[in-house]
Amino acid sequence: MSELQIYNTESRRKETFKPIQPGKVGLYVCGVTVYDYCHVGHARVMVVFDTFVRHLRAQGYDVKYVRNITDIDDKIINRALERGESINALTARFIDAMHEDERALNVLPPDEEPRATEYMQDILQMIETLLGKGCAYRADNGDVYFSVRDFPDYGRLSHKKLEDLEAGARIDVNAAKKDPLDFVLWKAAKPEEPEEAKWSAPFGLGRPGWHIECSAMSTRCLGPHFDIHGGGMDLQFPHHENEIAQSECATGEHFVNYWMHVGFVRINDEKMSKSLGNFFTIRDVIKAYHPEVLRTFLLSAHYRSPVNYSEDNLEKAKAELQRLYGALENIMPGEAVADTDYERRFDAALNDDLNTPQAFAVLFELARDVNKSQEPALAGLLVKLGQRLGILYDTPEAFFRSDAGADLSEEEIERLIEARNQARKDRDFARADQIRDELKAAGIELLDGPEGTRWRRV
RNA sequence: GGCCGGGUGGUAGAGUGGCUAUACAGAGGAUUGCAAAUCCUUGGACGUCGGUUCGAUUCCGGCCCCGGCCUCCA
């Protein structure tokens, strides 16, 4: 069996994965800030790490997968005020929506899903530790800052030098900071903020800064030193860099062994993001496409490459998935054959830094084999491996008929098919073709086979 | 400006120092009442200029172009 290789952002190369404890993996992924619906960029991170975890488990690892929820920050507060809604109601609503989106995408729930507001004790403790060790300080305005200069290794993840950072720093007029690079651990409460956003702490009423929650929660859930930490590319700096600084200062231990970062989803060669306003939400996309099509689209490129969101590319993903489901259409999948070259190559592809495009290539070869051989055991293998990528959970019929938008009901379609088949029996092919064309115009494609006529929405 | 990542056939997208990626689209064939699906065969590529090499799309360097981070962002 091939060894698992992971591209580590910190070393900028693929490394053979060596777990801290044999057979076990501790994985922490930065989740979303819940003040809006998840978009396709979030979907990519969810789907990539879900696939990664499925693969690790298939390889026999005992995985503890932790993905946090940021449920307190400026944007949440502002959005709640804007809407005249309580923070709690707002975040609860979007957390539910996120879970709904994940279920649609066949994203399995993480083992733990810590929320910042539920780990306030750990956050406070870590800040106190940092203050005690002298790598954090209380500023005149009541904020608590981390002193970047006190962490000599700062920049080791994102490969930045302090001088360069200073040179490029945008003008951040914050007189309270001793150094412009320092970042906030605790934000002092302001009078206009809702009571819900204020926690009492030894260093004053306020709320945590963004970075500290991940250090506190990952340490609590996985310990001070764990295997893998992941997230979107944009979290590399400053978020993850800051996590390293805080955590290592606080615990004195090496924080994380492998850093994985997922590439962006783009639109017209531009990053999809909330600030640019060019995002599509998951729920919007799956109104028009089967959720597995979106998942296939997201996995059809390597996770570190950018992927371009477009209707064209979604259509391509749909065609790919049709190819796979097509192989399963006339066959009852049986128990998957074991010990095949297909599975070995599939595993090897995923072991190679989660090379999902390569894994898909194996699936297509397998699908061709299924089409030719009509072997239930091969079909079973196709389903098994497909599900490892989080697809092929549906029945082919349901998949091919899933597209919304066709005007005809299934009964009407069946009736027309019957009429056509009668015409064919009567050798009235003109009439038969007329019905075919009619259905085609309504988005229904007919497939005549030995066992009768099947149909699909196209 | 500093630091990263990338430029592969019509499209999407892997990969490799010399040997078929894969999918859709294209061409030819088998099959079909006609189609579709399926199977077989097939054309088509590695931004640019140099270097290393017997040989580079693959290694090295310059250049051009694209994206990202340096501010909240998955």
UniProtKB/TrEMBL annotation:
Monomer. It is found in: Cytoplasm. Zn(2+) binds at C30, C214, H239, E243. A motif ('KMSKS' region) lies at residues 271-275. Residues 406-433 form a coiled coil. Its EC number is 6.1.1.16. It holds the Pfam family tRNA-synt_1e. ATP binds at K274. Its cofactor is Zn(2+). GO terms for biological process: cysteinyl-tRNA aminoacylation. GO terms for molecular function: ATP binding; cysteine-tRNA ligase activity; zinc ion binding. CDD domains: Anticodon_Ia_Cys, CysRS_core. It comes from Sulfurivirga caldicuralii. Residues 345-400 form the Cysteinyl-tRNA synthetase class Ia DALR domain. Keywords: Aminoacyl-tRNA synthetase, ATP-binding, Coiled coil, Cytoplasm, Ligase, Metal-binding, Nucleotide-binding, Protein biosynthesis, Zinc. Binds 1 zinc ion per subunit. It catalyses: tRNA(Cys) + L-cysteine + ATP = L-cysteinyl-tRNA(Cys) + AMP + diphosphate. HAMAP family: Cys_tRNA_synth. This is Cysteine--tRNA ligase. A motif ('HIGH' region) lies at residues 32-42. InterPro entries: Cys-tRNA-ligase (IPR015803), Cys-tRNA-synt_Ia_DALR (IPR015273), Cys-tRNA/MSH_ligase (IPR024909), CysS_C (IPR056411), Rossmann-like_a/b/a_fold (IPR014729), tRNA-synt_1_cat_dom (IPR032678), tRNAsynth_Ia_anticodon-bd (IPR009080). Belongs to the class-I aminoacyl-tRNA synthetase family. GO terms for cellular component: cytosol.
